[in-house]
Design a protein that fits this description.
Strand content: 15-25%
Shape: globular
Number of strands: 9
Structural class: alpha/beta
Distance between the termini: 59 Å
Radius of gyration: 19 Å
Length: 257
């Protein structure tokens, strides 16, 4: 019943309605805008990854920034941070919190699965806690990451956290199949892959290979993977287009020889 319910709705709803559900699902964002939460700092795995991969300073962009917890913590650690979020209520509360803490950082609103107008170039990127998990389907996640990559320097570290599930579970296999069947019956092409679910809003549970492969397609090379319970995180680097082109030329030359 759960497979049928999630699969049918996931297949029927257009992206505009799914985006509206995602945005409204946060409500007023009370759980993510209280003073205690905003001042709680980075989680243990975020601190670990920053210390190992991000260096000691630089400009960091935070996508799915919520009420600004990561922005506040990064600023206190010596980084310059900006962010954006799809919940208007959390953006309003986050801006107020940043002002109260005398932190000069931007927190912009953007529609779900999209980025705001960005003029600057950043040294690192963090996708806020679980933000990547709630972008669906795969092609939208790749488009989202490519848009962000345009504002990163080559070699910039990127932290992406996500729900990690079992690719062999019934939900992971059959929910996207039902959704794709519904799309075909309504004269639309299949777009969902294994791990796509719809527990009230679009959600994807990844395997490590899925996560790393689609990040690679978006122009990022994975360098480290961390997992705890049902969640995990990939650290990847923004690819250097020049170096990639040079390797392609060398490969073609070697094949010719």
């Amino acid at each position: 019943m759960q497979v049928l319910f999630e699969g049918v709705w996931m297949g029927l709803l257009p992206e505009s309605v799914s985006d509206l559900i995602s945005e409204q699902s946060y409500g007023q964002g009370v759980a993510y805008t209280g003073a205690a939460y905003l001042d709680s700092g980075l989680q243990f795995w975020e601190n670990l990854i920053l210390d190992r991969h991000f260096g000691a300073s630089g400009r960091v962009l935070v996508a799915a920034a919520g009420g600004g917890r990561e922005i506040i913590a990064l600023t206190r650690k010596g980084f310059a941070a900006d962010g954006f979020e799809c919940s208007r209520a959390m953006v309003t509360a986050g801006r107020k919190a940043l002002t109260e803490r005398m932190i000069q950082a931007r927190l912009d609103w953007a529609p779900p699965c999209r980025i705001p107008e960005i003029q600057d170039t950043y040294d690192a990127l963090i996708i806020g806690w679980n933000g990547y998990t709630y972008i669906s389907p795969r092609e939208r996640r790749i488009r989202f990451m490519k848009a962000l990559g345009a504002h990163l320097r080559p070699g910039s570290p990127v932290l992406v956290s996500a729900a990690i599930g079992s690719a062999r579970s019934g939900l992971a296999i059959w929910t996207p199949r039902v959704a794709n069947a519904v799309r075909v019956c309504t004269f639309r092409r299949p777009v969902f892959d294994r791990g796509a679910t719809f527990p009230g809003r679009p959600r994807h549970e990844f395997t490590r290979r899925q996560l790393e492969n689609e990040l690679a397609e978006a122009g990022f090379s994975a360098t480290a993977f961390y997992r705890w319970g049902d969640f995990g995180a990939v650290v990847c680097l923004k690819a250097d287009p020049g170096a990639t082109a040079l390797r392609s030329q060398e490969n073609r030359a070697a094949q010719t020889v």
